[in-house]
Amino acid sequence: MRREVLAVSLMLCIALSGCASVPVASHSGGRSLLRDALSVPVAELETRAASGDARAQFSTSLVYQYGLQGTPADPVKATTYRQQALIAKGYMPITQYIAGLNGNLGRTAIINVPRYEVTAGEARAAYVCARAVARRVAPEVGATACGTPDVYAEMVSF
Predict the structure, then answer these.
(1) How far apart are the first and last CA of the chain?
(2) Fewer CB atoms < 10 Å away: N or C end of the chain?
(3) CA distances (Å), origin 39, targets 29, 33, 43
(4) What integer is the mean pLDDT of 5-23?
(5) Residue 34, pLDDT above cutoff 50
C-alpha cells in the first residue's frame, strides 16, 4: 500500500513538473501592430519586414490591405506579408526536472516550446480595428472594433 502511494505521488510530481507557464508574445490586442502600420514610415516597415521581423511584416500587410499612410492598396502584397508574419515562430526553452527512480539521480531536460511572433488572436484584433479605422466608421462602432473609444480615437488621429 505504501509503495503504491509513493508511486502515485511520484508520478503526480513528475506530471506536475511538466506544467510550466509559458509567456506569450506581447499581446496588446493587435494595437501595437496597427499603431506601427499607421505611424512608422512604410519604407522602414518594409526594411524591417525584409530582415524577418514578423511584427513588421504584419504591420506592412495592414498598410497594403487598407491603403494606410497614402499607400495604394495592394491585396497581393498584403497577403504575402501576412502569410510570412503568421508562419514566423521562435522557440522558448523551458527547463524541466525529471526525478530519478530507484535511487538513480534525477536530470534536467530542455524542452523547446514553439511560440508565434504574431498570434492569431492578435492578428484578428488588428484587422478588425484597422478595417474600422480605414473606413472611418462611427465612433461607437470603432470603439467596439478597437476595444475602447480612446483606442479608436488614437488610431483615427494618425
Answers:
(1) 70
(2) N
(3) 17, 10, 12
(4) 48
(5) yes
